[in-house]
Amino acid sequence: MKEKATALNVKKIRADFPILKRRIGGKPLVYLDSAATSQKPKPVVDAITRFYTEYNANVHRSVHRLSEEATIAFEQSREKFASFVGAKTSREIVFVRNATEALNLVVFSWARSNLKAGDHVLLTEMEHHSNIVPWQILAKERSIKLDYVRIDDDGTLSWHSFEELIKEKPKAVSLAHVSNALGTINPVREIAKQAHNVGATVIVDAAQSVPHMPVDVSDLECDFMAVSGHKMLAPTGIGMLYGRYELLDHMEPLMGGGEMIKEVHLQEARWNDPPWKFEAGTPNIEGVIGLGAAVDYLSKLGMQNVRLHEKDITKYALERLGDVRGLVLYGTRNIERRGAAISFNLGDIHAHDLATVLDTQGIAIRSGHHCAQPLMERLKVPATSRASFYIYNMKREVDILVRALENARKMFKV
Amino acid sequence: MSADIYKEMILDHYRHPRNYGELADANVRAKDSNVLCGDVIEMQLRVDGNRIDDLRFRGQGCAISLASASMLTELSKGKLISEIQKLGKEDIIELLGADPGPARIECATLGLKVLKTAIYAHLGIRMPEEET
Known about the structure:
Strand order of the largest sheet of chain A: 4-10-9-8-7-5-6
CATH architecture of the largest domain in chain A: 3-Layer(aba) Sandwich
Shape of chain A: globular
Largest sheet of chain B: 3 strands, antiparallel
Helix content of chain B: 40-55%
Structural class of chain B: alpha+beta
Distance between the termini of chain A: 26 Å
Shape of chain B: globular
Radius of gyration of chain B: 14 Å
Number of domains of chain A: 2
Number of strands of chain A: 17
CATH superfamily of the largest domain in chain A: Type I PLP-dependent aspartate aminotransferase-like (Major domain)
CATH architecture of chain B: Alpha-Beta Complex
Helix content of chain A: 25-40%
CATH topology of the largest domain in chain A: Aspartate Aminotransferase, domain 2
CATH topology of chain B: Sufe protein. Chain: A
Order of helices and strands of chain B: HEEEHHHH
Number of helices of chain B: 5
CATH class of chain B: Alpha Beta
Structural class of chain A: alpha/beta
Number of helices of chain A: 14
Oligomer: heterodimer
Radius of gyration of chain A: 22 Å
Distance between the termini of chain B: 24 Å
Largest sheet of chain A: 7 strands, mixed
């Protein structure tokens, strides 16, 4: 397959990712696991190196020059990310470890002080464990009822099921913008509208959307949004919680310590303002600085172009995979309603066997339950294989994947 | 890791597992699972004195776990309990004829873990920590 020009100059992009030159067992690396974590471009790695070699210091503390520079870079990253997702002010962005911690912060701070026994929380069957388990912990503690929007056989949310469950007047509606296992893009804006009509607070797990498409919190009308840095070219260990300022302002901190206070006396303390109220202790400074460089990188490409590129390669992959005999695709075929993660099974080959065989060809895919066991139960499979694409993937890599799958099919006599 | 692990013999044991099914007169059973692949294996043994008279297994999972359990049942039939107790990871790799690599070794050793669990249950003693 000859590479046609897409919305992105993939060849130029690939030159920024040194890891893509690696060979695995003599074969060129075909990295199709960006939904698990993205690779990092040189500008991100360089920004981190520059921090450590030129202005490493703790932030918000000392008055010396290095600390001042570090603090400026740190807070600039917050501003960059805030405008990247359309927040009104950077004070609506709390730095955490990952999307999981962002969701936990919402559950154990906001929900814990706003929900009472008998209240309903509405989730969906396609949630990642990080948007299920924290709620279960709180549900046990507070006798809260968890409802789940059903999914239809094509892997999209059942609108009928949503309309039935919203009648329970949930206090919170928390859902994935894009499913990590199915790739489904959920109609968050429509859901948020109806949820707000019944007085619910809307929490969006955007770990799989913000790296891949334009996302604007005021457009989605969500109250909270959780994002992972490492899935959007930034290092691991840095996550972001967006929260409407009024909500953050009324929330209690989860952790106490330095940075999160205005004044401390022996018997009491006054909290700092958001977002610092939630950022006790020395933060992941290199992570935040890396995130700033990642946002710059993506902004330069343009998120609309990123989305167009991914639609193009996903459409191609769905067509090619659909031609592999015995291959079952999960999720919708409608390219407008799905992101760049494709789950599948090949005959009765176990997903891990398939991943191991593909690994011998230099192809990295994810296999397993994708931290979405309730979804696997719904699909009635123990596991699936998942290929996911990002800005550096080429159609040629889809061809390599398809060829390797054909070989696996023969090998396992499917 | 190479494709060696999926050689003909292993795929054959996966597609046609030996000693598979229910052992009606089993006097000891054990079952365990492996979180990574969701593999589940149950071993049923008829132990006579200190010898494994007969055994069957059943379960579901990946090719590595099922083939390794199947081959292990062939090896274990008629063996002394003490001989099975001595088996370890290296013996399973030798049995398979290939090292499945660190990511998949737990799949390969699940059958042995379940077999040993059954044996220790039969002996009525706790399985040593290093064998679990």
